[in-house]
Amino acid sequence: MVVAADGRERLEQLELAFVRERRIADALREVGGALGTTLELDDLLELILGKVTELLDADRATLYLLDDTNKELVSRIVVGQNVRSIRLKVGHGIAGTVAHSGKPFRIRDAYEDPRFERQWDALTGYRTTSMLAAPLKNHLGRTIGVIQVLNKVRGAEFTTEDEALLIALSTQAAVAIDNSRLFLSLIQKNKQLLDMTDQLERKLRDLELLFELERATARASTVEQLLTAVMSRLVLACDAQGAATLLVEEETGDLVVYAYDPRHPETIECVGVKAGEGFLCAAMDAEQPVRIEDGTADARFSARVEGVFSFPVTRVLALSLEGDGRPLGSIGLFGKQGGLGFSNEDVDLLRLVAANAATAVRLFRASRAREVGERLTSIGRLLSQVIHDFKTPMTVISGYVQLMVDAKDGAQRSAYAEEVLKQFDLLSSMQREVLEFARGERTLFVRRVYLKKFFSDITRQMAHEVDGRAVELEVDVDAKIVARFDEGRVARAIFNLARNAIEAMAEHGGRLTISAQMVGTELVIRVRDTGPGIPPEVEGRIFQSFVTAKQGGTGLGLAIVKKIAEEHDGRVEVESGPEGACFSLHLPQRERVPPAVPATAEPAPANDRAPGPGPKRGPRRTTKPSRGGSAKG
Ligand SMILES: Nc1ncnc2c1ncn2[C@@H]1O[C@H](COP(=O)(O)OP(=O)(O)OP(=O)(O)O)[C@@H](O)[C@H]1O
Ligand SMILES: [Mg+2]
């Protein structure tokens, strides 16, 4: 009987153990299956805690996670009460003790244990009795938190079976938490990667835009072209309806707005504005970008500026163009496609482009200033040449003035005075040449010239040059020829050559021969002397500026001759030997030279120009002479 009773008791125990194991197995399966449905940490914890409360017939449960840096337990999820966040020091209270020891804890009445912190109950008005707590240990055996359940229902206490179940569930919970954390960190890494890719793509786009801008602005030869290049790209990149740039003019300080409307991409509107007028003036003085939602309703709206666009201006985004010290102006986007507002990305892009545009404008202005400087240098050079050639008219004037002094006859005197006035004409035409050059114009007054008349004038003036010297002058010209060239300049060239010849024969005297004839399609003017020839120390360099072998010479005469020949698409050549030097000026006459008509030189029609520019020359502008009369050489 005893055996039978023992056997029954044993059977009951086994049955109980079986039921318990099955409950645990079922609970684990259920929780395991549920864990597979979500990786969201809070959902997971709530699920685990719900299951724990239900399976253990508990009133409440709390799950704490360990905050390793602060050595604290932080309640993550609480089921069955309202307190949302509890912080416990590791080693303090029941849960803190479990976290510290890594061992489960079970008690019939919490108030029996001095470690129980009653203030929570006092705070919530709850009365804790039975209590069960187990550590959450991950796969490495490290405690990552604590699960705590309170008050078994119907005043019962938690059993060893409950404890085993809680330990099993907490292991599962720990694994799930670890997985979830891993998953979250992967998601975060992935997001970081995506953000980085996004940033890189944006940087690449910005770089491409900058590169394109750099190329376009480098090609621009006017401010308008430069700003069109900048604004057209900006409008595209920001999906804007239009753009405008305000620039403070360097010399005058005037404000000019350049507006770009993609509907009329070929033209850029320029509007002079008053200080403080329109949004761009506001942006120039503002430290932050100016953003306007409804342009037309804004008090700063200017019909003259924002009104130039073909669309009503609503949204505006504008910012200052940084200069050295004070702003260069400002740049703005007007209207966003699709009725949207400008984004922060647009602001970043505008900043980038504005910085680039400001640099481009500064460089552009610096290069213009350099060009002006270079032109001034050239003016200096030209001026020195003109002053060099003042010698001829000065000599002629002084010759005639001396003649006038001795002339008794009034008619004779007025003939001399006429000659003097002609020289003043020549002087003022030379002065004009310099001024026209300063304005960026290059003029060549090419006309039909009757050589007979041209050389008779030259001979008469040359008489003053040879006067008082042992030099015999001979002029040998085919009087029938009518050629095309700039009389004034060719006369200057001939005088420079003749003066050199006279100076070369100063010591021993000799013969100066000036001749002119057609050779093929070229008019060839020769100036020959019987002097000693070109000194060996300057031979080969005589056409360069400032090359001279003379005491008091400037070395400009032949450089001027060469320049005049080249202006006519011609050339100058020299032959020299002990018997003398001969310079020849070759002036191409590509068009057929019309037969001579017995009349004086007359101005050519306005479109009458020198033979077309050669490949080495830039475009040439022909302007009408400012005076009716022809300049005489
Ligand atoms: N007909 C010539 N015979 C000999 N030497 C000449 C002759 N023409 C020019 N030269 C030489 O060529 C040099 C350069 O001539 P160029 O007319 O350019 O300058 P320059 O006569 O010395 O000075 P300037 O500026 O006053 O004319 C002269 O110094 C001279 O040595
Ligand atoms: Mg000379």
Tell me the CATH topology of the largest domain.
Heat Shock Protein 90
Strand content: 15-25%
Helical stretch tally: 13
| CATH architecture annotation of the largest domain | 2-Layer Sandwich
Poorly predicted residue ranges: 592-633
Unique ligands? adenosine-5'-triphosphate, magnesium ion
Structural class: alpha+beta
Mean pLDDT: 84
CATH level-four homologous superfamily name of the largest domain:
Histidine kinase-like ATPase, C-terminal domain
How many DSSP-defined strands?
A: 19
Q: What is the name of the CATH class of the largest domain?
A: Alpha Beta
Indicate the radius of gyration in whole angstroms.
Answer: 52 Å
The main sheet comes to:
6 strands, antiparallel
Strand order of the largest sheet: 3-2-1-6-5-4
Distance between the termini: 158 Å
Q: Name the helicity range.
A: 40-55%
Tell me, briefly, the overall form.
rod-shaped
For the record, the count of structural domains works out to 3
Task: Give me a quick take on this structure.
The chain is of the alpha+beta class. It has helices spanning about 1-35, 40-55, 95-100, 120-125, 160-220, 225-235, 280-285, 345-390, 390-405, 410-440, 450-465, 485-505, 555-565; strands at about 60-65, 70-80, 85-90, 105, 130-135, 145-150, 240-250, 255-260, 270-275, 290, 315-320, 330-335, 445-450, 470-475, 480-485, 510-520, 520-530, 570-575, 580-590.
Descriptive account of the structure:
This protein is an alpha+beta fold. It folds into 3 domains: 30-180, Beta-Lactamase; 220-369, GAF domain (Beta-Lactamase), CATH 3.30.450; 431-588, Histidine kinase-like ATPase, C-terminal domain (Heat Shock Protein 90). It contains 13 helices and 19 strands. The strands form 4 sheets. Strands 3-2-1-6-5-4 form a 6-stranded antiparallel sheet, sandwiched between helices. A 6-stranded antiparallel sheet has the order 9-8-7-12-11-10, with helices on both faces. A hairpin with a 5-residue loop joins strand 5 and strand 6. Helix 9 packs across helix 11 (451-466) and helix 12 runs antiparallel to helix 13 (557-567). The protein is rod-shaped, with a radius of gyration of 52 Å. The structure holds adenosine-5'-triphosphate and magnesium ion. The site of magnesium ion has 4 residues, from helix 12.
